[in-house]
Design a protein that fits this description.
The structure holds 2 protein chains of 2 kinds.
Chain A: H1 2-9, E1 11-17, H2 22-30, E2 35-42, E3 45-51, H3 55-64, E4 68-75, H4 77-82, H5 88-104, E5 110-114, H6 121-130, H7 144-154, E6 158-166, E7 169-176, E8 190-194, E9 198-207, E10 209-210, E11 217-218, E12 223-226, E13 228-232, E14 240-245, E15 249-265, E16 267-271, E17 274-283, E18 286-289, H8 295-300, E19 301-311, E20 317-329, E21 332-336, H9 339-358, E22 362-373, E23 376-388, E24 390-394
Parallel strand pairs in A: 5-7
Antiparallel strand pairs in A: 1-3, 1-4, 2-3, 6-7, 8-12, 8-24, 9-11, 9-15, 10-12, 13-14, 15-23, 16-21, 17-18, 17-20, 19-20, 22-23
Chain B: H1 2-15, H2 20-23, E1 28-32, E2 36-40, E3 44-47, E4 52-56, E5 61-74, E6 78-90
Classes of the chains: A alpha+beta, B alpha+beta.
Amino acid sequence: MGGLMRWLSGWVRIQLEGPYPERWFNLFAAHALPFWDAAQSSGTCARFTFSRSDLPAARRLAEQSGAQLTVVEQGGLPMLLLGFRHRWGMIAGAALLALLVGVLGQFIMVVEVEGNQTIPDAAVVALLQRCGFGVGSYGPGADVRALSNRALMECPELAFLTVDIRGIRAHVVVREADPVPEIQDNTTPADIVAARDGWLVRVDQLEGEPQFAPGDAVVKGETIVSHLLVNYRKDGSGEVVSTRSVRARGEVWAMTEHDLTAALPLSACAPGGEQAVGWGIRFLGHRLNFYGNSSHRDRECGKMGILTAARLPGDTVLPFGTWQQRWYARADQPVTMDPEQGTALVKQILRSRLEDGLGQGRILNTHWQAEQREGAVMVTLHAVCLEQIGVSVDVQP
Amino acid sequence: MEHFWDRLRQQAAQTLDLPGDIVAGLPRMELVGDREFWMENHRGILRYGTEEIHISGGRMAVCVRGSNLDLRSMNATTLCITGRIHAVELG
């Protein structure tokens, strides 16, 4: 510890020459000048190490005793700092760095979101930005309570939101509101009707009177499960005793046929090649362009901007990065496509479209037909599917 | 005259069974193992070297012999010598 304190305050090693070197020990001790690492190299010469601040007093005592004082060596933190006194660029850089750290440390650089389950982080960040808080905001000036209230009013899916600002990080803790349960209407009478033509495979009615049996064919709009429950007399006369309206519930599975057709032109016109590239930087939400006035290019060309943000090792996005602006010629250039590639692309699109429309159903059989006509490839899909076709339709009173 | 008062203080300390270093200002020495030598009420360094250090104790001189001797700290009344101490002699 003593060594560290000596290094921090700086030390100086001196050599004294004169008769009777021992008297300097007593002289310095009597004047309460602490020294260490004393060595008597000869009969008239001794070396001492002093704290840098004690050097003037030691020099004065040496003069009074008629000794010749020579500084042999100096060291410690003050000497280290003095070594940089002519490096103005380094000093200016260090001062600028300290200033930047001091100033930028007051602004929000990272927004972290915690506690969300269904709402994405980006949605919460965007919500806060709409409320005037985000990357680049002045941290000490943020009114967290007002911000929280406003954000909760704008987003009813959130039940709780608070922002904890720690230096450059804003830690946002949210709790999502419990979803409002869907109110099921069990009072209004409803039929289950066929959403499309098909052959019934299974009718699972939970409520209501089925009008068709598996194996029957139905057309779109026909009532499969009726809302009307009829009680007949038990003697077999067929006389209606009473009727009751219910809301029919259940699932109707049927085999259906689908015909989908799509065409893709094999030649098209795409925007022209890249004309120019401009660079800029983005910092705390502000952009500084280095490509000057680009209004004439904006009128003549299409443009696209690419932001590349700096990231920390933990994939944390920093609020600065490079901005690249690319301009493309508006004049279209012809582009051709291989027919096989075009066919495969259209098949993929049609199959995807069919699967999206089936829900929990599945495709049982497919038949493809492709032909080239008038510079386009035309693909037709004929598919047999198993799907749920029953939809609930309220009965008008 | 000064010698007389020193003798008197020393006699009084012996008679009254009082600590001599306090009453008579006699030097008080302490040896910690063979590595550290402390001395209070010294009167200054008489001779200094890495093998031998002579210290004035008023009416006596103290010689510390050893190797790699170093005067670690010193003020007007107390000093500390470190190193490998072989002998402490009173003269």
